[in-house]
């Protein structure tokens, strides 16, 4: 299975509509892939908080239209990163997933919002649903950026059948070491592929880490990008998930339902 991660650069001088069209062209160029992934909030930038309300859109808005057409034209499964979704008077950080016919088959509202009582944490509402996407050869578990720091979310995705974990992000350069470390940790502890796709460029003055990464179920790095705009490609072997879990069956030794301290 061929996967392409599009580490698009967010330039504040590039109009959102122009970046939307450019991202669609980058997806179309990956027609030899089976799965294509874009980063978190690439239309305006994950730290462009002042733009969230103005650039918000419904699920069937302009980003959906562009990404649906791009997935259909390329004939690929597309995780189109995330948008600022406007729904019911609230804003959500919402990921969009399309099948090769361009049909939006899943959405995921980010559960863990970053900001420590400011920024995304106060501007956006939290999602409350774990989301998996069954592809012909393996099942994806979907998470977004700051979610990467919460291992219990990924355990839930594995319990729901996930064999590959797709994590679009707008991760800052100053914490790049955490990005790489956590991506490998989530792969090792869940014995699953991790496809972590970040942005390049600068969002509202926050330099982005780039360094998108693909990790196999044993924790080996299959491919890693640099800091600049790049398309990262990797070959995935869906059978390796089952093989790893059979040869080193650590997931079977999980101890659940332990009593609380002092109980």
UniProtKB/TrEMBL annotation:
Source organism (scientific name): Streptomyces solicathayae
Protein name: Carbon-nitrogen family hydrolase
Coiled-coil intervals, chain numbering: none
The keyword Transport belongs to this UniProt entry's keyword annotation: no
GO molecular function: hydrolase activity
Alphabetic keyword roster: Hydrolase
InterPro entries (UniProt xref): C-N_Hydrolase, C-N_Hydrolase_sf, UPF0012_CS
Family assignment from sequence similarity: Belongs to the carbon-nitrogen hydrolase superfamily. NIT1/NIT2 family.
SUPFAM superfamilies assigned to the protein according to its UniProt record, in alphabetical order: Carbon-nitrogen hydrolase (SSF56317)
Residues in CN hydrolase domain copies: 1-238
CDD domains from the UniProt entry: nitrilase_5
The UniProt record lists the keyword Hydrolase: yes
Pfam families found in the cross-reference section: CN_hydrolase
